[in-house]
Specification:
With 382 residues, the chain is α+β, with helices and mostly antiparallel strands. The protein has a domain of 98 residues: D-Amino Acid Oxidase, Chain A, domain 2 (2-Layer Sandwich). The protein is built from twelve helices and 17 strands. The strands form four sheets. Strands 5-4-12-13-14-11-15 form a seven-stranded mixed sheet, sandwiched between helices. The longest helix has 30 residues. The structure holds flavin-adenine dinucleotide. The site of flavin-adenine dinucleotide has 31 residues, from helix 1, strand 3 and helix 9. The site of flavin-adenine dinucleotide (FAD) has 31 residues, from helix 1, strand 3 and helix 9. It comes from Asanoa siamensis.
């Protein structure tokens, strides 16, 4: 079988590796001239690292990753700890795989070293029978075409029609701060979410601990284009977090050239395949980053797709099974992420107090996480 994967992000590259392991000949077309240097921090929960381990990639991922000790929620004004979920040995023993933080660029570079990628190859159209049209006029035909081309997917538009992604009213200012510049601050090797009225701040270390990934999310009514490279105004970030715990003010102040990332999403869709063509990752189920599962769900998709293709050489039948195995799971994680958009930004008051009480009661590694981290994507069981 010959396959074309459109998009050389995390989803596309893991798909290519997984398909090659089951004997499929794969080509990857990536629009960027240079593969995957952009981006900042990505969280890889054990449901993703277990799959990376099965593909023989976990050892090299660990070399560029940071293993956080815990996942913390803190209050916005005084930094008070609301809950801490252990993520180190506890996660390893509960779920058989580690929780890791990586720089997206490090992970993409590592994956691209394991599978050939044709860079500077922008797809402009795909037909359901498996013909891929590139911007330079080339036409390539494959038995299977996988659209792993992100939230504004051209492959999705080609097989399902045009529908714009929705601006969520949230904008993230992001940056990577060298670890020595935050050495005086009480920021540990944790995944920390600091929640406050209408805003939140997330930070964790990446790149073997050399860089602190900081994401400051605010609500804005204005529509902004979705881009990974727009630069925001550092004064706006500082002003937005004025009056917060001094640690947050210091982190916001250290973002000297923050990247401004307007957050978009889409509703779950019932089907995302047509004949020889399917979608994967953000192309079919984009989600807000508030469940830290965007990359993980794309990795699960890749694993399941390869298993379905290995089981059946009838491509439409394999794609129908892939969709059936992935639909409810990804819709549930999309829902979790969207729900956190409201939960994280509650104004101080009764609803916030109820949230904080609920969070405190799940202190520790709770079985509530089994559905997410202990999930077997082939059986659908935790
Ligand atoms: C540049 C970039 C930076 C990111 N940085 C972060 C981050 O810091 N933190 C975070 O949580 N998430 C980040 N994300 C999103 C995160 O990577 C995804 O949510 C998650 O990994 C799922 O990935 P995906 O492979 O489905 O899609 P994506 O990661 O969006 O990858 C899609 C790939 O397809 C390529 N592509 C798009 N259109 C075409 C086309 N027409 N022809 C060929 N190739 C095409 C894109 O260039 C990209 O490489 C980033 C995404 C991108 C594209």
């Amino acid at each position: 079988m010959r396959a074309v994967v459109v998009g050389g992000g995390i989803g596309g590259l893991v798909t290519a590796l997984a398909l090659r392991r089951v004997g499929v000949e794969v080509r990857v077309f990536e629009q960027a001239a240079v593969v995957g240097t952009a981006g900042a921090g990505i969280q890889l929960a054990p449901n993703a690292t277990r799959i990376l381990a099965s593909l023989g990639l976990l050892g090299s991922v660990r070399q560029v990753a940071v293993a956080p000790t815990s996942f913390e929620f803190r209050r916005w004004d005084d930094g008070r700890l609301l809950s801490a979920t252990p993520l180190g040995p506890a996660v390893l023993s509960a779920y058989g795989a580690p929780y890791l933080h990586v720089h997206r660029g490090d992970l993409v570079a590592l994956l691209a070293g394991a599978v050939p990628v044709e860079a500077g190859a922008r797809c402009v159209d795909v037909s359901p029978d498996g013909e891929v049209v590139l911007a330079d006029g080339r036409r390539e035909r494959a038995d299977l075409v996988v659209g792993a081309d992100g939230i504004h997917s051209v492959v999705r538009r080609s097989i399902l029609g045009a529908a714009d992604a929705r601006f969520t009213g949230h904008v993230a200012y992001r940056g990577l701060i060298p670890a020595d510049r935050v050495a005086g601050l009480p920021v540990a090797r944790t995944a920390t979410v600091r929640m406050g009225p209408g805003r939140h701040c997330v930070h964790y270390f990446v790149s073997s601990g050399r860089l602190l990934n900081v994401v400051c999310v605010v609500e804005e009514s204005r529509w902004t284009r979705e881009s990974w490279t727009d630069v925001g105004d550092p004064l706006e970030v500082r002003a937005a977090f004025a009056g917060w715990d001094p640690v947050v003010s210091a982190l916001a102040g250290a973002l000297s050239a923050p990247l401004k990332w307007a957050l978009f999403d889409r509703e779950p869709i019932p089907r995302w395949s047509k004949d020889a063509v399917t979608l994967l990752g953000d192309a079919c189920h984009p989600m807000l980053p508030y469940g830290a599962q965007g990359a993980a769900q794309a990795i699960e998709d890749a694993f399941v797709l390869a298993a379905c293709v290995a089981d059946s050489s009838d491509v439409p039948a394999a794609l129908a099974r892939y969709e059936a195995l992935r639909h409810d799971r990804t819709a549930r994680v999309q829902d979790l992420s969207r729900g956190n958009a409201t939960r994280f930004h509650l104004p101080d008051g009764p609803a916030q107090q109820a949230r904080d009480t609920a969070i405190a009661s799940t202190n520790g590694l709770s079985a509530d996480l089994d559905w997410l981290y202990g999930f077997d994507p082939l059986t659908g069981r935790a």
